[in-house]
Amino acid sequence: MALLLALTAGAFGAVRAPAAHAAGGWWEPAARPAPDSQINVTGAPFTGTDADGNVRGFVDAHNHLMSNEGFGGRIICGATFSEKGAADALKDCPEHYPDGALALFENVTGGADGHHDPVGWPTFKDWPAHDSLSHQQDYYAWVERAWRGGQRVLVNDLVTNGLLCSIYPFKDRSCDEMTAIRLEAQKSYDLQAYIDRMYGGPGKGWFRIVTDSAQARQVIEQGKLAVVLGVETSEPFGCKQILDIAQCNEGDIDRGLDELYKLGVRSMFLCHKFDNALCGVRFDEGTIGVAVNAGQFLSTGTFWKTEKCAGPQHDNPIGLPTAQAASLLPKGVQIPTYAGDAQCNTRGLTRLGEYAVRGMMQRHMMLEVDHMSVKAADRAFELLESQAYPGVISSHSWMDLQWTERLYRLGGFAAQYAHSAEGFVAEAHRTEALRDRYRVGYGYGTDLNGVGGWPGPVGEDAPNAVHYPFRTADGGSVVDRQVTGDRTWDYNKDGMAHDGLVPDWIEQMRLSGGQDVVDDLMHGAQSYLDTWKATEGHRPGTDLAAGRAAAASSSEWSLFTSYRPDRAVDGDRGTRWASGWSDDQWLQVDLGSLRTVNRVTLDWERAYGREYRIELSADGSTWHTAWSTAAGNGGIDTAFFDPAPARYVRVHGVKRATGWGYSLYEVGVFGP
């Protein structure tokens, strides 16, 4: 059970399209099932674009509509919809009856004191609740209320965990992760069809699964909800590792990416909770981290390994071993302790992980870097930067925050976990200057149905208590207390118990001094589309150095292989140039003619440069420095500089980082 706990871990310009409709307009279904949840929002959803042609609306960048179908089918109780109606969808798992005593997951995660009222519809005495981690929070009508409150993009991350499924005693289906992902994707399309039927037929509902940015823009302009499919799972494509041995290969990755793309998936995580064959994970913190580490052992046969961090970024600190976590393990196996100054996962992005990242770029998919270890995320950023690839997402506050600008510089999109209104506003203000500099909007990741815990009630007398009814951020709709069955929800008393209370949370954010934050959130839909469109339109630049003549100040001699300078421009990462073992060394490439260049990529071997510069020349004799650094850290370095004409490009080493010389697998030169 300890492992179960650990795994849970304003004014917007003139509108181009008409925004006013008569009551009972297109946003109201022709035939909603009865009885059903109320929406309790009046007024037409805003449509069209602002005076600058930008779409408007909030982005939930991390939600799990269908997680009740994952984890063996009995971790999240209740369904997003049912053809039999609300009473069938919003019911508890059978083992929770009659008093919740066997609701093992609910009880160990603190949502109850060992017992709860299992009855959902129509009374909802004990669930859903902000601290109940095992009950449905994304019933379709609650999602509808979030949409009516201004949400225009929702990323539906298909999710499961094979180990959690296998150790949980109640299940009614396979624990295979890819089988669960396929089912959740199908159920998402089934939900779209279910809503369409309420509105008169295919394509008429407000819930639209989109597979490209143009389609998403069209949906948002119509005032509807653009739903993007993502994947967050521990063993994508079966790529787990056992005793450090990968259980997949490049063919599995290609087939897996192709299958997911065909299903409509456009963003994904490569690792989650446990190290796998693709990458090391960002540790869970404290005692939860200890229990997840026990799960890591049960899943992979190895515990996490840590090392001193190479830079200021670090993974979360793992707590001290506990008896609870130890009880999960075979007799004689002990959970390790870790030095306080060694907070980074030794495991980064593996060779197969790099292959997967490149495969995602080839398919124009967006990479989620949350949950990657610092070492893995750094390498992923290096790969993306080497291709100037904008498709990078941080959807719920798990990326090291010091890399936010690195993400924005590429053209990526960031969202914050749905913390308390005050906490969310404080963190949003911390990064506000960056958003202003890069002219981007903001998002939130609710992680609903994701077993995380959500903002609790503040009380009716709190300074930022929500006063009902209130107007949505665009000013066009009125939101009252939400009613489902016999239960009336009040955000001040209930917190974020389900997705329908997201508009109330955003109103509390405004009341907490966050009008500027709400404005940035309203710009989120356009920023998300900007990242997606740039990802789709990305084309690998032409490497002007490929196959060109190269020269060097020296080349290391070897009896067994050649380290000639041309080995750094032959397109083969199995070969390399290596210099003599002294500081002042250089490698230069003749581009054949005068070209305009603005980017140089360096794929270093272990012998990398600590201090070096990029020099340009038109004639091979007169040089000027286009870029320099005294803080090289190896891996893949990408030097961006203002476009300049050059025929010759030189990498000039000033100071080595090791006792060897300088060694480069590949040097790439690119133009604007």
Automatic annotation (TrEMBL):
Organism encoding this protein: Kitasatospora arboriphila
Signal is among the record's keywords: yes
Classification via InterPro entries: FA58C, Galactose-bd-like_sf, Metal_Hydrolase
Coiled-coil region list: none
Domain F5/8 type C, residue spans: 537-672
Alphabetized UniProt keyword annotations: Signal
Signal peptide: 1-22
Protein name per its UniProtKB record: F5/8 type C domain-containing protein
